[in-house]
Amino acid sequence: MTIAASAMVLLSLAPLGPAASAGPRASKPGPACGSAQGAGRILFVGDSVAGAAGAGGFANGFPARTLALLGTSQARSLAEGSEISAHPGKRSDQIEPLVRTLLASGRFDTIVFEEGINDAWQGQLVEQYAASMTAQLGLARDAGARIVVLTIPPTHDSARSTPARDQALARMNDWLKQAAPAFGDLVDVTRPLVGGASGRMADAFNSGDDIHPNAAGHEVIATALAAELARCGA
Question: Among 4, 73, 166, 177, which is most buried by a count of CB atoms within 10 Å?
Answer without folding.
Answer: 166
